[in-house]
Hints:
This protein is an alpha/beta fold and 432 residues long. It has 3 domains: 2-197, NAD(P)-binding Rossmann-like Domain (Rossmann fold, 3-Layer(aba) Sandwich); 208-290, Orthogonal Bundle (N-(1-d-carboxylethyl)-l-norvaline Dehydrogenase, domain 2); 295-428, Rossmann fold (3-Layer(aba) Sandwich). Helix content is 42%, strand content 14%. The longest helix is centred in the middle third of the chain and has 32 residues, at 200-231. The termini are far apart.
Amino acid sequence: MKLCMIGTGYVGLVSGVCFSDLGNTVYCVDKNKEKIKSLNKGHIPIYEPGLEEMVKRNYKQKRLIFTSDLKYAVEKTDIIFICVGTPTKRGGNSADLKYVFQVVNQLKKYIKKYKIVITKSTVPVTTGDRIEKILKKQKLKKIVDIVSNPEFLREGEAIRDFISPDRVIIGTDSVKANRILKSLYLPIIKKTSRYFNTSRRGAELIKYASNAFLATKISYINEIANLCEKTGVDIKDISYGIGSDQRIGERFLRAGPAYGGSCFPKDTRALIDTAKLFKTNLSIVKSVIKSNDYRKLLLTHKVNKILKNKIKNKTITFLGVTFKPNTDDMREASSLFMIPKLNKNGAKIRYFDPSGKKNDFENLKNVNFCKDISSACYKSDLIIIHTEWNEFKLLNFKKLTKKRNCIIFDMRNIYSPIKMRREKIKYFGIGR
Ligand code: UGA
């Protein structure tokens, strides 16, 4: 099939490349000419394991085309995916749909024969109706089907998530569009994944409800972890004990720092905003946002407490600063709150992240990037494991710090407290 992906961000690029790997011809369009130029030279703008090799392979086979010419890409293709960003609007909670509508207004000019126009970007419920209204005005209604097909890719696992989805959601009441999309997705619909055709509004809401539910699960386990700390229970036992109930499920029950990333914080806020518009109070989601914000402060207080409220001139090492491993993404990472706060209170911060130095800390005095784990940890007063990259999982802290009395705050519960105690390392985890 011939596909057009508009937007070469995370969703657009990964989905486009994966679709081309399945044998489709995919035109990836971006208005950013520099980005297209560098993609044509084989440079990948995002950090995603396995993506570069896949791009190169399909580019060579001429199944993957990068262009800034939207008109050309629309003419050449039958299925158009809108994959542009929907960030939070400045000064509010709602999703900013200006990029989506810029694209729709261009499509209005370029569509001349039957096309399926799909929103893959996360858009609030009823956005598809608004898109339809615009395209309908141009007498395009009969030749365009507007579909919602939300994406459930996780950064760092995006290719695997695309190839082995739990479900593919197609929101449309058009029998024709549904038939075509079912055959497009057929190669990845396995026994374990469901293909689900629902209403367009239903598909739009499924995406938000999924992300808000996962955020709720994380905040819930994080709050239970607070109780575990007070009662001497290990949160890992709780996650295992409750997760073994199939009604609950074991995934997304890892306690840790506040959740971050480009999706959960943005989408929970936008869901609240949509609910308000429809005069509904989503009090649970509101509490989740509050709980997650508070968590950043709570863990910063805990750092202070570990250092007996004497953090002035103490050297604190952050191992990992991204919101999760296998990404270079810093968006809404809890380190963005904690590092400046601790630094303001007089701590000297060193950090190491496998994805490299971060501009976010560039202007902070006494916050320094170290080129490897050993230089980051040497003689440090406190080591904080902030992100669970694999290379942080088997460290010899005494050797690294060259200190007998090193202190570890393991925010991802990677290490065994018993083993740490045996090695006489002062160890703090989350909820244990
Ligand atoms: C999330 C969803 O998982 C995807 O399904 C969705 O497609 C995507 O948002 C999106 O809307 O585009 P992502 O933001 O890449 O994916 O990251 P997650 O793996 O979901 O992690 C989000 C945050 O939750 C991270 O800070 C992570 O450390 C935290 N987390 C996750 C926990 O603290 N505990 C857990 O058990 C799981």
